[in-house]
Write a structure and sequence with these properties.
Strand content: 15-25%
CATH topology of the largest domain: GTP Cyclohydrolase I, domain 2
Number of helices: 7
CATH class of the largest domain: Alpha Beta
CATH superfamily of the largest domain: GTP cyclohydrolase I, C-terminal domain/NADPH-dependent 7-cyano-7-deazaguanine reductase, N-terminal domain
Number of domains: 2
Distance between the termini: 33 Å
Largest sheet: 6 strands, mixed
């Protein structure tokens, strides 16, 4: 797991408060450096970790329906299936934009065509959590998730769709409070236009 130096963060936050003309010692701000350090420990817990490691052991395809049901209490039938494609929709996430250190958040839709293995559905959510818990860009986040699924499961194809709102767009500059950004990352068989369109049609129903 990535290491977060909370002492350095506390000192840095105190310097930032002083730099904007505030008094870090006043009552309302006295505990702010500690709170921010604890927050950073949570937001950036994925730094240095490989998202693919979150899969742990996968399940042989023929045994997946019984095994995946037991993983994190998640019912395999909660996923949509297109032939041999598994799609998990609306996985909520939050991350921090590396350009301004402001949050962006939304949902991730992850589809993959298994070869010989399936993951418990809770493991797919864990991959999203690890990949998003670091300074990120939305475009790279989709690629990180797609690469992790492809490597971790030796999947034949992967499609990752992310819909998010960015604090750097809503809270600063143009302040477009209703704007959202959609990115798509595709690998293998699901990069084929016909297969991709079929999965995107299911994603659009969410």
């Amino acid at each position: 797991m990535g290491s977060v130096d909370r002492d350095r963060i506390r000192a840095a936050v105190g310097e930032i408060l002083a730099a904007i003309g505030e008094d870090p010692a006043r009552e309302g701000l006295r505990d702010t450096p500690r709170r921010v350090a604890e927050l950073c420990g949570e937001l950036f817990a994925g730094v240095g970790d490989d998202p693919a490691d979150a899969f742990g052991g996968a399940f042989a395809l023929r045994d997946a329906s019984s095994s995946a049901d037991a993983d994190h209490g998640t019912d395999l039938h909660a996923a949509d299936r297109i032939g041999s494609v598994v799609l998990m929709r609306d996985l909520a996430f939050r991350s921090i934009c590396e350009h301004h250190l402001l949050p962006f958040e939304g949902v991730v839709h992850v589809a993959y065509e298994p070869d010989a293995e399936l993951a418990g559905l809770g493991r797919v959510a864990a991959v999203v959590e690890v990949a998003s818990s670091r300074p990120q860009l939305q475009e790279r986040l989709g690629d990180d998730i797609a690469d992790a699924v492809e490597r971790g499961l030796a999947a034949r194809g992967v499609l990752v769709v992310i819909e998010a709102r960015h604090g750097c767009v809503t809270a600063r500059g143009p302040r477009q409070t209703t704007s959202s950004t959609v990115t798509v990352s595709a690998r293998g068989s699901l990069a084929d236009p016909a297969a991709r369109a079929e999965v995107m049609a299911l994603v659009s129903r969410s």
